Amino acid sequence: MSSPEFTFRLLAQDGGARRGEITMPRGTIRTPAFMPVGTAGTVKAMYLDQVRDLGSDIILGNTYHLMLRPGAERVARLGGLHEFARWPYPILTDSGGFQIMSLASLRKMSETGVTFRSHVDGSVHELTPERSIEIQGLLDSDIQMQLDECIRLPAERAEIERAMELSLRWAERSAAAFGEQPGKAMFGIVQGGDLPDLRIRSAERLTAMALKGYAVGGLAVGEPQSVMLETLSETLPSLPETKPRYLMGVGTPDDILQSVARGIDMFDCVMPTRAGRHGLAFTRDGRVNLKNARHAEDARPLDDTSDCPATRDYARAYLHHLVRSDEALAGMLLTWNNLAYYQMLMAEMRVAIEAGRFADFAAVTAERWARGEAQRKAAVA
């Protein structure tokens, strides 16, 4: 299904967990949803046809990387990111702010925006809220994010408040630059670090802007998981129930499971793809490190009940061999496995919410992860 307008509706709720749908011209996004990260117009080590077949309704692209290479204007001339990457379904683009803070050198912040030196070739660029939205428009993404300032935790209150207030002013400028784009949406980003009063202030002022969706940013940037979850519990009641809620850059399967329980609808993270390229598999029974020598003669697949060929059809011994031999196929197969597991987890959560048994599902899932991890530790000992 698709819709000529951007709409969100809640289909079921079980405790804090929400089952919903976002509809827009390029398709429907079933929530809770995990968005594979296609930083530079590709999900690393995967064909996008595979990504779709695993159950992905939407992928993420990155303004910072695409503005530097190959350039937003070039992508626009070539038909936009959907045509360029051969992905005709929804795409969310982030604003580039986080990457500027984490990758770029010699950056200089001002009220206007941020000037930075590219990590690719050293060239100097300026990114303002208006330019970020312009780039996302040239890429033709369906959901666009405001430019914000994301700071790492822990940080002093004065610094957290300064960045939060700047991000609010940039949200207003981003919304003005976005204007009215039928069928598309711009999301604001709640900031405020680990300080509840600042998070609530940010959420309330963004809600007053009547945006089409809201993200929680600035988490999973150095703080413990308990702080992240407490921050979500304190922040989400200040966001409207009728709009989608997106937790940026999160996370592990456990992070996602616990965040869904608190009311988050959308996620993105490099975790499953990055872990796959480094020999780590996510499974129903927890994490499996294929670098470990004890897999050298293990003929079992990662999970013989999985629908994913990478998970079901390849022996752990073979995967271990590929990882230890630094073969490209290792990253391809393990990324395939990881994204399959993430999408299976999302699908199972959606079913559990609809059936009113999310708490039981979460408990059984977490217990199975813990049991698998304990068994692996015992085997090593």
Topology:
Elements: E1 7-14, E2 17-24, E3 27-31, E4 33-36, H1 48-53, E5 59-62, H2 63-68, H3 72-77, H4 81-85, E6 91-94, H5 97-102, E7 105-109, E8 114-117, E9 124-127, H6 129-139, E10 143-145, H7 157-178, E11 185-190, H8 196-207, E12 213-216, H9 225-235, E13 245-247, H10 253-261, E14 266-269, H11 271-277, E15 280-283, E16 286-289, H12 309-312, H13 316-324, H14 328-355, H15 358-380
Parallel strand pairs: 4-14, 5-6, 6-10, 10-11, 11-12, 12-13, 13-14
Antiparallel strand pairs: 1-2, 2-3, 7-8, 8-9, 15-16
EC number: 2.4.2.29
Binding site for substrate: 94-98, 148, 191, 218
GO molecular function, one term: tRNA-guanosine(34) queuine transglycosylase activity
Describe the structure.
- One of its GO terms (molecular function) is tRNA-guanosine(34) queuine transglycosylase activity.
- Residues 249-255, 273-277 are annotated as: RNA binding.
- This protein has 381 residues and is an alpha/beta fold.
- It has 2 domains: 26-269, TIM Barrel (Alpha-Beta Barrel); 276-380, no CATH class.
- The protein is 43% helix and 19% strand.
- The strands form 4 sheets. An 8-stranded parallel β-sheet has the order 4-14-13-12-11-10-6-5. A 3-stranded antiparallel β-sheet has the order 1-2-3. Strands 7-8-9 form a 3-stranded antiparallel β-sheet.
- Helix 10 (253-261) links the parallel strand 13 (245-247) and strand 14.
- Helix 10 packs antiparallel against helix 15 and helix 13 packs across helix 14.
- The N and C termini lie far apart (52 Å).
